[in-house]
Amino acid sequence: MTQKQTLTVRDNRTGDEYELDITDGAIRASDVGKIGKTEDEAGLAVYDPGFTNTASTRSAVTFIDGDKGILEYRGYPIEQLAESSNFLEVAYLLIYGELPTREQYERWEHEITFHTFVHEDIKTVMRGFRYDAHPMGMLLSSVGALSTFYPEARNITDEQIRHEQIVRLIAKMPTLGAWSFRHAQGKPYVYPDNDLSYAENFLSMLFRMSEPKYEPDPRLTKALEVLFILHADHEQNASANAVRSVGSTQVDPYSAVSAGIAALFGPLHGGANEAVLRMLKRIGSKEKVPAFIEGVKNGDERLMGFGHRVYKNYDPRAKIIKKACDEVFEVTGVNPLLEVAQELEKIALEDDYFVSRKLYPNVDFYSGLIYEALQFPPEMFTVLFAIPRTAGWLAQWIELVDDPEQKIARPKQIYTGGRELDFVPASERWK
Ligand code: CMC
């Protein structure tokens, strides 16, 4: 006998019963809203700060099983993509839903490569920042500014126009990211070199000085490709949600993506890798790890790079990054903070505080060590996250725009403030 896919709810205030449909393991909040609804009274609402158990969309982009530590893009395991694909192929997969044919890939790579240059006036915009501007602030402003250069982007229903903006965003992010890095160093901005691959070109714009051609170590290029693949999407995380929320107003994709960059900037999201490195430096040596762990357990601080809203197991990306660390350190020499990180991980994974809360290393725990070995200052770490995540944001944005069920994102509130107070003018209140 097939089970009935419904939920029966009895409202004990009235004795009324309601039968709510269950689809894909979820009930509809709008059906809950029918409970207790009368002409004068609003129906029942769902209170869920931080959306801990609220699905905001149906999505076919990324699958995560947090308990088992599984991550798949469009059904393909992250481990296989990191091992055998490259970032541009993964970006295509995320956005268009299928692996590209050879012809599709070549066209895609060509399009991305030839849109890496930005309008010269963007350079002027970037030059206007203070010498010590945080590169994430520069990135989010310059991506927002791109919307003024491509006003046609506001036509989000035209597929060709949409495709052009997707290409521009993916192509220009490394240019903007690299220039925000050079800005802080007072070095001239380096123009893209279209003979190079996506990752090589980024490294060239970051590090090239007077040499006529920049030739990065292929092991470092490969490590960067892997990091880009691992960071490309992560379903409905805070920044994807910001892109969707802002995108739901039907604004252009540059504005929606700059909202994503802003969300990513925070230390509980993409800013965590920067926070991890600062934490490791503050701890300083292996011997000081137990005292630091005690401080975390006493609630004095957080163990940055640990814990995840979704993973209650080892973050699969952290496993791959740990391996990439060894390959990068072969070229750059071992980062001395690795020892501190390994000791933290060892102690935390045995300690009941972390075990009982299912707190494991997340993607940010080891990535900062690689970035530092590659000579990036901590302020650049989140930029290195934002560049590949643009592919995921755009995949989420396209899905939103094409989804007839989506509406402008507008949550409810439970009002807790005063009502119908009589206003007393300042001249009387301050007598
Ligand atoms: N250190 C110490 N305690 C922690 C940590 C941590 N890193 N993370 C969670 N806890 C504790 C928390 O205090 C709470 O304990 P209790 O039940 O006693 O109050 C319990 O574990 C559950 O934590 P929560 O804050 O309710 O969990 P959340 O799902 O709201 O937060 C998180 C997830 C990622 C914000 C949080 O684990 C955290 O702040 N981690 C450190 C920051 C970090 O590494 N962020 C990167 C996330 S992965 C990359 C990305 O997606 O951007």
Specify the helix fraction band. 40-55%
How would the global form be characterised?
globular
The proportion of residues in beta strands is 5-15%
| Rg (CA only) | 24 Å
- Total strand segments: 5
Order of helices and strands: EEHEEEHHHHHHHHHHHHHHHHHH
Question: Tally the helices: what do you get?
Answer: 19
Q: From the helix content, strand content and strand pairing, which structural class follows?
A: mainly alpha
Report the uncertain regions: none
Structural key phrases:
single chain; 5 strands; mainly alpha; 431 residues; 19 helices; binds carboxymethyl coenzyme *A; three-stranded antiparallel beta sheet
List the helices and strands and how they pair.
Elements: E1 6-11, E2 16-21, H1 29-32, E3 62-65, E4 70-73, E5 76-77, H2 78-84, H3 87-96, H4 102-113, H5 120-127, H6 135-149, H7 159-185, H8 198-207, H9 218-230, H10 238-247, H11 253-265, H12 272-283, H13 289-297, H14 316-332, H15 337-350, H16 352-356, H17 364-373, H18 381-402, H19 426-429
Antiparallel strand pairs: 1-2, 3-4, 4-5
Helix pairs in contact: 2-9, 3-18, 4-7, 6-7, 6-11, 7-8, 7-18, 9-14, 10-11, 10-18, 11-18, 12-17, 14-17
Offer a quick outline of the entry.
This protein is 52% helix and 5% strand.
How would you portray this structure in words?
- There is one protein chain.
- With 431 residues, the chain is mainly alpha-helical.
- It contains 19 helices and 5 strands.
- The strands form 2 sheets. A 3-stranded antiparallel β-sheet has the order 3-4-5. Strands 1-2 form a two-stranded antiparallel sheet.
- The mean pLDDT is 95.
- The site of carboxymethyl coenzyme *A has 20 residues, from loops.
